[in-house]
Amino acid sequence: MTDFPPLREELRGLAPYGAPQLDLPVQLNVNENPYGPSPACVADIATAVAEAAGSLNRYPDREFTELRTALAGYLSRDTPHGIAPEQVWAANGSNEVMLQLLQAFGGPGRTALSFAPTYSMYPEYARDTMTEWVTGHRESDFSLDLDKAHALVEEVRPSVVLLPSPNNPTGTALPPEAVAGLCEAVGDGGVLVVDEAYGEFRRSGTPSALELLPDHRNLVVSRTMSKAFALAGARLGYLAAAPEICDAIRVVRLPYHLSAVTQAVALAALRHAPELLGRVDDLRTERDATVAWLREQGHTVADSDANFALFGTFADRHAVWKGLVDRGVLIREVGPDGWLRVSIGTPAEMTAFKQALTAVTEEGL
Ligand code: PMP
């Protein structure tokens, strides 16, 4: 008897990716921005969507020219060299951007490389595009040993290197010299993707990899509107790279992949960038305070340039996670054994988290 449905062999028995979506009062598990848009921003988005609705009988602008121009303008703040619209590509979340990168540059007979612990979706992009997946390892402080990284690149000759900076789940940022050196090591035989999903939260003094684009044509810098931009529900991710890379992605994208509604929402949100990003400084302050508090309690905490903190280590992290759930606080059981990750919320949410964690640890967990 044949199994039904006739799934690819390597997909049999696998569960879909995703953090538990539990309806708890304090949600600190998927690194969202806790601050929603203002009434003025909501009104502007609603007007833009209403306008787009009038022509939903037509397919959207396949090249999303206006959105690409607006995103280029936004990114240009982070590099003295500026970013041109033809250097920008966008899709439904940076998840889709990266899947498209693997579709274009990975595939059978090719290898994608990252360094663990790293974002847990990466192996899934590789699996879905039939790209071989190889992981090196980060050091005990979650930094990259560049000599070891270069040696692995030499050995594996990857077509795609995926490097989140700041890294998820550890929060570790990569210094620009490391990115530049790895771009050289990868050479024209591959692309190096710096996933800056949390880029806007980095501590001052760490430049964005966007600054390196003029010197490295194999560099891709990926961003998202889901985190600092407080727009996770709209699904808009994007990248900056050499125009040849954007042209290559165009070959694998589905036609009209960005709906007219998505384009309208993202454009309206970009007009409110100062407001939507206005809370980033507050979140960074809250992050530093949370890291300091966790350390005062005797926990080990990874240095974080993102809107979350990885802390531990617990003999039974699941019991700690569950103890917090029982107190209405949802965090994430992710990362190396024994560690837990908490997203940075509002001051009230962080107070609830601290009280719950204190209660749980007092139980001796
Ligand atoms: N990259 C990293 C490192 C992430 O943590 C996430 C989301 N958790 C993403 C990419 C994907 O984000 P989105 O698809 O919402 O843009």
From TrEMBL:
GO terms for biological process: L-histidine biosynthetic process. It is an enzyme of class 2 (transferase). GO terms for molecular function: histidinol-phosphate transaminase activity; pyridoxal phosphate binding. Keywords: Amino-acid biosynthesis, Aminotransferase, Histidine biosynthesis, Pyridoxal phosphate, Transferase. Signal peptide: none annotated. Homodimer. Belongs to the class-II pyridoxal-phosphate-dependent aminotransferase family. Histidinol-phosphate aminotransferase subfamily. This is Histidinol-phosphate aminotransferase. It comes from Nocardioides ginsengisegetis. The gene is hisC.
